[in-house]
Amino acid sequence: MYLMKTANRFNVMVAAVAVAATVLMGVFGSSDAQLQMNFYAKSCPNAEKIISDHIQKHIHNGPSLAAPLIRMHFHDCFVRGCDGSVLINSTSGNAERDAPPNLTLRGFGFVERIKTLLEAECPKTVSCADIIALTARDSVVATGGPWWSVPTGRRDGRISNLAEASNNIPGPTSNFTTLQQRFANQGLNLKDLVLLSGAHTIGVSHCSSMSERLYNFSTTVKQDPSLDSEYAANIKAKKCKSLNDNTTILEMDPGSSRSFDLSYYRLVLKRRGLFQSDSALTKNSATLKMINDLVNGSEKKFYKAFAKSMEKMGRVKVKTGSAGVIRTRCSVAGS
Question: Annotated catalytic, 200?
Fold first, then answer.
């Protein structure tokens, strides 16, 4: 009788653990644990070197490419997880690439060229999703930025939808509530929001991403009052001279747009962040404190924290194992 009761209790405990594991798998993604460092060590041992060598060979001819490549990784992970779906072309104009947040993305050809090299070396082996993740890291490192771990083993998706991109990717006009919710939807917290926004320390944008802050902020106020007036006047005079300017390029971190440093956060505190989403980070006491802590800390500490958030984002809803596919052409869903 005692043995039967003990056995029953054991069975109940096993069932409870199984239920808990199932719940956790639903929250974090059942395939997350299958990502691993050097996933291609046996199937394509030179894969990561091929990617790194290609970047080292070409990034110095276009150092500004690091910013769009890390942005591509970000935008990919926020829609159906990090599955390379942002790269898919659509003949009907209804793919992620066609969504407003992605219309200014660059680097598609660069990624496709790397994929071609890898297909020649190891056909149908290395995923487009892993290429994006590794390329983002290696391009940032090549321009003097931080290094972070990129475990591999992601597989590709074949669904790419404009509406999903529009509804999930935080845009430059996002307020704090939208930013918090869209990050939370991916299992990312406020610390990740602040740290990943730090990628705005490199790269450029266009007047179209912030011109409404200058000329058409609301029905009652033409200029965003949270934008430093001297900074705004300078942009109006020298860069974005009208609401309809969609082509003029702006540095996101003026004077330091090629250096991965803390300058971006200092500008945000001075109300000189380019986007409304930058300004939104100062509207919450917790994120404002985080920014002040970063500014008062060391660049080394920032690099370490940024790396952790990048590693975390790179695991969002990944497809591994038997899930997903290995596309032979990153731009073609059915390849």
Answer: no
